[in-house]
């Protein structure tokens, strides 16, 4: 068992190389094959051991950026996430003894991805195989089958690889079939690429105002953060007055104001001055007071010239133990551990499913970690969104790989939705991405920048927006069917 655990641990560590900052996605099938080998021949009662080792190797390296919050947070998150891979190990050990195991094991991988991406609380989808796809042929699957389907294709490549190895012993036909299936997986969507229809042109500006101090604490001098975004927008307005083409929409990042702009008169005046100067809607990222004194909302607010704050989007997936403390009232002592003391109020989750109306655009808004979740983006695209915006404040992680990992997910969302994506960050990474995932504009980290670009509003909803959720249910049914049929076969064999 020690040798199996060591192989699985190495596979998990290597899997993290498939993502940023190394971004070597072609290691993924080999890593999955390593875990398959480590669990092969075990029972479900013992398969969890190599599964846990794999999870510890992957999560401890892929999520190492959590050390920016604290070693305790990094260790705790690693252990929680690794537990899902322990479950996967047991599932793979059971399913590999059944017929059609390459399919059922691939489905089990995706089912566990979806499980850990939604539970507990809102889960953590970070590390989905699809998120490594932006610069690979598999990216062409994204607008057709979504992140769920693309993860399934990656998983099938891994399980198929082991199947090919097992088929080399005299089963040439099976080998050729597996190679043919892999070729189809890699090339089929490229033969019929999804062409996103382009609509009306729009000129957008993403403002990265920068964070004072060492750049890692947006609350260190939050009023200066707001002032930086005001000044950068007014400077852009000056260039427009000198003859530069005016934008139709300006995007500020999450936490461009850390106090309620409807309550704080100083912040309100600053935003109003920027709005009056530029004369177009500004999508402001602000912290807004909730209905109760101990509640806050993280919102994207469409600030219209002359009328002020209007349409709003509230972050759908606040971070548990980062932006709110679950069961605070039932477990009052839980708020006294380490940096949890800094979370004095709980952030409420939003439920909006419609895009924001900001000037000529129907904006699909995502605030920071929202971009890693399918539901909010899919809902808004299906409801008519034609431009995707990511408002983020990654200052705490600015010296880690987290910002590159999140930017890679933003690129993936551009391909998946067929929309242009505007990313506005407080001090990095801001950028403008086209529907092919190509980065048109990008700001340097820890700089003050204003990115301006002519893009297009893209109407319509790619197949992935409807196929992806259906595939989510199908993978669960596939795993369930594999387990049930395996149990029936086992019962007949005993009889």
Describe this structure in words.
- With 495 residues, the protein is an alpha/beta fold.
- The chain has two domains: 2-194 and 466-494; 201-316 and 351-462, Carbon-nitrogen hydrolase (Nitrilase/N-carbamoyl-D-aminoacid amidohydrolase, 4-Layer Sandwich).
- The protein has helices spanning 2-15, 28-39, 48-62, 71-95, 101-116, 142-167, 172-191, 222-241, 265-278, 374-382, 402-417, 464-494, and strands at residues 201-208, 249-251, 282-289, 295-304, 308-314, 346-347, 356-358, 361-367, 387-392, 421-425, 431-433, 439-442, 449-456.
- The strands form two sheets. Strands 1, 2, 3, 4, 5, 6 and 13 form a seven-stranded mixed sheet that branches. Strands 7-8-9-10-11-12 form a six-stranded mixed sheet, with helices on one face.
- Helix 10 links the parallel strand 8 (361-367) and strand 9 (387-392).
- The longest helix is centred in the last third of the chain and has 31 residues, at 464-494.
């Amino acid at each position: 068992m020690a040798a199996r655990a060591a192989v699985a641990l190495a596979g998990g560590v290597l899997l993290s190389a498939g993502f940023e900052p190394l971004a070597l996605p072609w290691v993924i099938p080999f890593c999955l094959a390593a875990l398959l080998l480590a669990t092969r021949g075990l029972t479900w009662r013992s398969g969890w051991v190599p599964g846990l080792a794999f999870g510890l190797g992957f999560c401890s390296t892929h999520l190492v950026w959590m050390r920016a919050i604290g070693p305790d947070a990094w260790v705790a998150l690693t252990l929680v996430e690794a537990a899902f891979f322990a479950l996967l190990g047991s599932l793979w050990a059971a399913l590999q003894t059944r017929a059609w195991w390459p399919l059922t094991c691939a489905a089990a991988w995706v089912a566990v991805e979806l499980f850990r991406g939604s539970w507990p609380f809102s889960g953590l989808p970070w590390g989905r195989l699809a998120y490594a796809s932006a610069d690979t042929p598999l990216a062409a699957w994204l607008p057709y089958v979504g992140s769920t389907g693309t993860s399934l294709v990656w998983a099938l490549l891994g399980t198929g690889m082991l199947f090919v190895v097992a088929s080399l012993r005299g089963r040439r036909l099976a080998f050729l079939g597996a190679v043919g299936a892999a070729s189809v997986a890699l090339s089929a969507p490229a033969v019929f690429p999804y062409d996103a229809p382009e609509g009306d042109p729009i000129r957008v500006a993403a403002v990265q105002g920068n964070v004072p101090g060492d750049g890692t604490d947006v609350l260190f001098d939050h009023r200066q953060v707001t002032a930086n975004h005001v000044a950068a927008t007014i400077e852009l307005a000056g260039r427009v007055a000198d003859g530069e083409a005016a934008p139709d929409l300006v995007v500020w990042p999450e936490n461009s104001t850390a106090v309620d702009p409807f309550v704080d008169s100083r912040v309100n005046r600053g935003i109003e001055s920027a709005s009056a100067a530029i004369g177009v809607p500004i999508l402001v990222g602000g912290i807004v007071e909730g209905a109760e004194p101990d509640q806050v909302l993280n919102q994207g607010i469409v600030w219209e010239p002359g009328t002020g704050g209007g349409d709003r989007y509230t972050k759908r997936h606040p971070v548990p133990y980062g932006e709110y403390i679950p069961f605070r009232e039932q477990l009052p002592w839980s708020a006294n551990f380490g940096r949890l003391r800094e979370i004095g109020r709980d952030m409420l989750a939003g439920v909006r499913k419609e895009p924001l109306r900001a000037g000529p655009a129907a904006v699909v808004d995502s605030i920071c970690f929202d971009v890693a979740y399918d539901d909010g983006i899919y809902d808004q695209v299906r409801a008519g969104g034609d431009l995707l915006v990511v408002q983020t404040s990654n200052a705490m992680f600015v010296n880690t790989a987290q910002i590159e990992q999140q930017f890679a997910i933003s690129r993936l969302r551009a391909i998946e939705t067929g929309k242009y994506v505007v990313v506005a960050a407080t001090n990095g990474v801001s950028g403008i991405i086209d529907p092919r995932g190509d980065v048109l504009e990008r700001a340097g980290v820890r700089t003050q920048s204003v990115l301006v670009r002519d893009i297009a509003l893209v109407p319509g909803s790619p197949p992935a927006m409807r196929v992806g959720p259906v595939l989510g249910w199908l993978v669960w049914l596939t795993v369930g069917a594999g387990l049930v049929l395996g149990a029936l076969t086992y019962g007949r064999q005993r009889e």
